[in-house]
Amino acid sequence: MALLEGRDLTSIFDFSDREIEAVFDLADEMSKHTRGRLGLADGKIMSTLFYEPSTRTRLSFESAMLRLGGEVISVADTTVTSVKKGETIADTVRIIESYADIIVIRNPLEGSARVAADYASIPVINAGDGPHEHPTQTLLDLYTIRREKGKLRDVNVALVGDLRFGRTVHSLAFGLARFGAKVTCVAPRGLEMPAHLLARLDKEFGCRPAQYQSLAEIVTNAEVVKRRPGRQRALASEVLTLFDAVYVTRVQKERFESEEAYRAATGSYAITEEMIRRARPDALVMHPLPRVDELAYGIDRDPRAVYFRQAAYGVPVRMALASALLGLRAVRIGKARKGEYKPKPRREVDFRKFSNVRCSNGHCVTNHETYLAPQFNFVDYAPGAIACAYCEHEMPMPAGVPSE
Ligand code: CP
User: Fold this and answer.
1) CA of residue 53 to ligand 1 center, whole Å
2) I need a surface site. Which of 75, 197, 247, 380 has the fewest CB within 10 A?
């Protein structure tokens, strides 16, 4: 038996593979208690601190805490808090830690959850930090695959949509790769998976996703043409015959600089009724939701369209996570597997003498919360590069900084 008590979850890299599976085992147990109220979290308080809109993440965390028997204090709109007066993340969480036992934070700045975790003395859970990560969404996405397919390892998954700004797919690509998945990326031009994430998937996990710009392009590739000799026509409607799961995301309108840029990127992919009619009997259509126009309403009742069940799994998964971090339940850690991922200590660059070097990502928390000292890590898979310790944005090693 081992505990996750007192830990933070700011990144999917904070938990080992076995710790993720242990949370899922606990979620299986919690699934029996998603109605009513367990007495497990009596006297415990969760604070949900949301600087951005949310339906599923905030309400499912709050439902999870209430189902565990705890209480919730919630900020759903920071414009009615002292954030409006300029209070920083560091000060806000140091206040909340006196009022609550665990913090769930969503903030548009990349790396913001790590700041909260660094300053708060109670567990902090990242509910989305800009386009960077959304690790609890990844937990429930992986849990959905495990529940619906009966296995988590070695699945074949297509990630479709806005892979540039979609934080759920950033965390999920690594979650899938860690469990041996074959990953395919389908993104309109300009919304591809960032190059530094692809490099890390390859170098650290041996995962090299095939890249496409449309669903039709996948179906016309050699794989299908080989199966259907002589058939060269684009048949996007056959895309659900190729994967165990197709994970679709909306274009993240809120991250675009202009309405024109957003409009240019939308409407180029959608899962249709025709696709689901031709789908494999065991295919899954997943989506973190909310949807815009990427999923036809006509497919909602098909059992392979699992996105509402996926959202529902958010409650037992978050019950399991909160009870483990609060130390209310021990989790059983399984036997080590060869090559499994375990969190590694950071190899930080000493930047104390180079205070003028800042992260080059304008959306990084260190460029907005200016009390933060920039911190960088060496990048194992890219010699000569450093990555911001908060947002993981990579940049060349500035001149004059000593190497390791
Ligand atoms: N999937 C997800 O994060 O949904 P919300 O934005 O509604 O929380």
Assistant:
1) 8
2) 380
